[in-house]
Amino acid sequence: NAGVTQTPKFQVLKTGQSMTLQCAQDMNHEYMSWYRQDPGMGLRLIHYSVGAGITDQGEVPNGYNVSRSTTEDFPLRLLSAAPSQTSVYFCASTPGHSSVSYEQYFGPGTRLTVT
Amino acid sequence: GQNIDQPTEMTATEGAIVQINCTYQTSGFNGLFWYQQHAGEAPTFLSYNVLDGLEEKGRFSSFLSRSKGYSYLLLKELQMKDSASYLCAVKGLTGGGNKLTFGTGTQLKVEL
After folding, report:
1. Which helix (H) or strand (E) holds A24?
2. What CA–CA distances, in Å, run from A21 to A30, A53, A110?
3. Across the interface, which of B44, B45, B103 has its CB nearest the CB of A42?
4. B43 with A96: Cβ contact below 8 A
5. What secondary structure does DSSP assign to chain B, as a single string?
6. Tell me: the pLDDT tens digits for A25-43?
7. How far apart are CA B13 and CA B36, in angstroms?
């Protein structure tokens, strides 16, 4: 299994541009999440999903959209990039409510800079 | 909401024992996680506590007291490779197993 994969690894955007960060998992996990990590702030939840077709907002959802059309994929869209969105973005997946494991598996991260 | 506190930095000596504390205040509690994160890498799972008491896993142990809103991660026989950030995270009552609130992390430096 590849686990959780994220593309791209690095990205530089200009203010106002839009883009999609890709995330995929091949473990048939039900739950998926997007976090951003900033120095001194820890990991903050952006959006999460408890299954295909179901998404909800986390702590810092503004400026981001998500969709979950399949179990495997959970893309994060930046609608109009701002310098405040410069961060490291992590995607994570968790088995699901029928599993005894709550361990989150994290992808390698996408380092985004907005100029 | 959730509020999670942990020390920003700690330093310890190779071969020693270190305890990293985490206190939390939550509107709903359904488990506490510890993750390890090396610089430039993704977090990796260390432990999960949902009941009071100590969970031991090799050199790492994690303790939870729900009545006190308190947890600690105990690392024994420290090795240089244990130098990393240790993240405490709390799971709420809603949102499934993937809606976690993280503390800001404790940067542990292991010295010779």
Report:
1. strand A19-25
2. 19, 18, 8
3. B103
4. no
5. -EEEE--SEEEEETT--EEEEEEEEESS---EEEEEE-TTS--EEEEEE-SSEEEEETTEEEEEETTTTEEEEEE-S--GGG-EEEEEEEE-SSSGGG-EEE---EEEEEE-
6. 999 999 999 999 998 888 9
7. 18
Q: Kindly determine whether residue B91 and residue A102, on different chains, have CB atoms separated by under 8 Å.
A: yes
Residue among A31, A44, A106 minimizing CB distance to B97? A31
Left, alpha or beta for A53 (phi > 0: left; psi -120 to 50: alpha)? left
Write the single-letter amino acid at B75. L
Q: Cα separation of A81 and A62, whole Å?
A: 11
Interchain CB distance below 8 Å, A104 and B100: yes
pLDDT per residue as tens digits for the range A51-108: 999 999 999 999 999 999 999 999 999 999 999 999 999 999 998 766 667 788 999 9
CA distance A39 to chain B (A): 9
